[in-house]
TrEMBL record:
Keywords: Developmental protein, Disulfide bond. It comes from Pelodiscus sinensis (Chinese softshell turtle). Pfam families: Fz (PF01392), Peptidase_M14 (PF00246). Disulfide bonds join C63-C87. SMART domains: FRI. Belongs to the peptidase M14 family. This is Uncharacterized protein. The lineage of its organism: Eukaryota, Metazoa, Chordata, Craniata, Vertebrata. Residues 1-101 form the FZ domain. The keyword Cell wall biogenesis/degradation does not apply.
Length: 180
């Protein structure tokens, strides 16, 4: 149901958002800590549960517990807790009627994995190995789709003489800003 809790009005807007990109790479940023919990918590904001044409917010206590558990991992990489996981703003108390997006992880549901699969394509980025030329193409294509926040450039050459391309995401790509 759109708009979601971040007021994003379509699936395409969600998939091009910085929140979606961060959610998709957070596992690598945190070296696997707090995942898949963080991914499911993020999904509960980007694609909230609906019932009778009404969005049901995820439970605040779930967010607070996960934040408390995961803050050391975020601190270790000097990264702030994502704003879109603000426990007070985007999550609800049990008295308001909420759902636990991590219940299935704890085995509190008998729903089979097959029941979760749909014919719609997944909205999560699949991490697969690409050839050098394919990776360069993906980096450049991504930057061209978001030119106001992204740019690619080479940071040198590999032993094989290939450019080592990186992609930069920033509110001001190409300009160093302290603490960003």
């Amino acid at each position: 149901m759109y708009p979601n809790l971040l007021d994003q009005k379509s699936r395409q807007v969600v998939e091009m958002s910085s929140e979606y990109i961060l959610m998709s790479v957070i596992h690598n940023l945190l070296q696997g800590e707090c995942n898949p919990d963080l991914r499911l918590l993020s999904c509960s904001i980007l694609a909230p549960q609906c019932e009778k044409d009404r969005v049901i917010k995820p439970c605040r206590h779930v967010c607070e517990n996960l934040r408390k558990t995961c803050l050391p991992a975020f601190d270790a990489i000097d990264m702030a807790w994502p704003y879109f996981l603000d426990c007070d703003r985007f999550f609800a108390g049990e008295e308001e009627g909420c759902f636990d997006p991590l219940a299935k992880l704890r085995g509190e549901s008998e729903l089979a994995v097959e029941d979760l699969l749909t014919e719609e394509p997944t909205t999560l980025i699949k991490f697969t190995h690409h050839s050098y030329s394919k990776m360069v193409s993906i980096l450049k294509k991504t930057a061209s789709r978001c030119p106001h926040i992204a740019r690619t450039y080479s940071i040198g050459r590999s032993f094989e003489g290939r450019d080592l391309f990186v992609i930069e995401f920033s509110t001001n790509p190409g300009h160093h800003e302290p603490s960003e």
